[in-house]
Amino acid sequence: MMRTPSIRSQDDPLSIAIRPPASESDVDRQSRLQQEAEARRISEQIDEELRVEREKLRKSRSDVKLLLLGQAESGKSTLQKQFQLMYSPASLEGERMSWRTVVYYNAVCSIKKILATLEAWDDIDDGSDSQSTIERQELNQDDFPLAPASLLGSHIGVAISPSSPLDPPSPSAPSPTKSGVSDLRRRLVSLVNIEPQLADRLSGGVSVSGSGKGEVYVRTGWQARTIQKGHKLIGRRSKRGEAESSELTTERPGTALSTLDSDSLVEDVATMLYQSREDIKSLWEHPVVRALISKRKLKLDEWSEFFLNDIARIAARDYVPSTVDDILHARIQTMGVAEHIFDVDIHGKIVAWHLFDVGGARGQRHSWVPYFDDANAIIFVSPISAFDQYLEEDPRTNRIDDSLQLFTQICSNQLLKKVHLVLFLNKTDILRKKLEQGLRVSKYILSYGDRPNEYDSVVQYFRVHFLQVHRRNNENRRVLYTHLTNVTDTKATQSIIGNVRDSIFRGYLQSAALV
Ligand SMILES: Nc1nc2c(ncn2[C@@H]2O[C@H](COP(=O)(O)OP(=O)(O)OP(=O)(O)O)[C@@H](O)[C@H]2O)c(=O)[nH]1
Ligand SMILES: [Mg+2]
């Protein structure tokens, strides 16, 4: 049998290898002892770092982890901005200049979409009268056939998508005259041609498949990329990858903004917008564009109206986005999962809250799962104004139907069965506006039938469907907290955040058995 040598054995090859040579001089000995002391120092430093990491991990177990989930454009990042405004306003203030690029991008994309729609009409232009032509073009949405079986077919009957607003009208349809429009188009073409470069600047050159929308995606930390290096405006803590936090600004905001280096591309866009401001205004107010919008031939994104209505202010030479309204309305898709950390004071106790804001497009949803196992709470955001909209990534799927399907998956997920669940039925302001404009819910949601086309009735109908999904997938008998929201309304949202914070924290304390 083989004998295992003792580590103390004089024959131990390791002891032999590290034993100083018998002929070691004083100088060599001194040098060796120095090297050994340095190695000990490094080893102790590593031990200390490990200890600090372990301590952080132990502490982070007592942090609150809150996921913001929901489909693309539902309002998750806007809600995150409201948290930031509430718990770390200085950091949002420090980001103002970087949001200018997004606002410019939103404005340029909106103008591009208007021009593309006009061009689609122009291709088949026969020079007939604009107003009457568009009126003759009423889309007969009652003719939409039923969608193929939806996952929630038993809950909600939806109509399939009408043609995209960018689809040209059928060749047999006459198109509007565009007196003055062609000149505007020609003059604005160089402005809209800069859109891909702006997109590239925001996304840092990253292109993403799976969104379905030709929009730009940003990873967390993009603000820092658009702000020139050397101006450290925002304190950051990080956890997973390049995750972002939102703490103190290191300079007074006014000073910080004035010391920003300029980005020549963004400055070029600013100059072009300034020079084109009258043309943009004329285009936006042009009767043909107005008619296309009112007849729903041109469907712009919700934020387009906000920025185009205010183009004189946005195109001004010294434009800086307003901390609240402009930043809350600026639209940029989230890529992956962005972590934001806030120190939240709950009745005198400071607790770190980790907010995970996810990308909601279908191609992004796989990245949510790693965050499920240690989540304490979820706010599921569903845009109930979207009854007449279809997924960009799947234009046959009604957005309310997708939201219900997604909510079903969240409610039934085993990893999430103990998580505190909050539902935001969001974009209530847009829902109200659509109903006031006469949009009929039953055209898109066939199961709505002949119920009154009124706000309270519509809200109640959608709420009941979400509650039903929850009830059918609630083996743990957890409570569902529901709020009707417009997350661009700061006062109302912050009051709701206060309620949600208290209810989450109560549940968190109970589950942590601290009370
Ligand atoms: N009027 C109004 N606009 C809203 C509301 N909620 C969000 N928006 C706007 O809708 C757009 C999309 O909101 P985001 O917060 O970026 O959507 P998201 O859920 O983060 O989308 P992804 O990152 O793609 O998953 C933004 O321009 C918001 O300003 C709301 O309640 N009312
Ligand atoms: Mg987002």
From TrEMBL:
Q: Which InterPro entries match?
A: Gprotein_alpha_su, GproteinA_insert, P-loop_NTPase
Protein residues bound to Mg(2+): 334
Q: Which GO terms describe its cellular component?
A: cytoplasm; heterotrimeric G-protein complex
- Pfam family membership, one: G-alpha
Give the source's domain of life in one word: Eukaryota
Q: Per UniProt, where does GTP bind?
A: 328-334, 426-429
* Compositional bias per record (Pro residues), positions renumbered to this chain: 165-174
Which UniProt keywords are listed? GTP-binding, Magnesium, Metal-binding, Nucleotide-binding, Transducer
The record ties this protein, via SMART domains, to: G_alpha
One MF term in the entry's GO annotations: GTP binding
Stretches of Basic and acidic residues bias are at 26-40
- Please give the residue ranges the record annotates as the region Disordered: 1-40, 158-182, 231-256
* BP GO terms, sorted: adenylate cyclase-modulating G protein-coupled receptor signaling pathway
Q: What is this protein called?
A: Guanine nucleotide-binding protein alpha-4 subunit
Name the species this protein comes from.
Answer: Paxillus rubicundulus Ve08.2h10
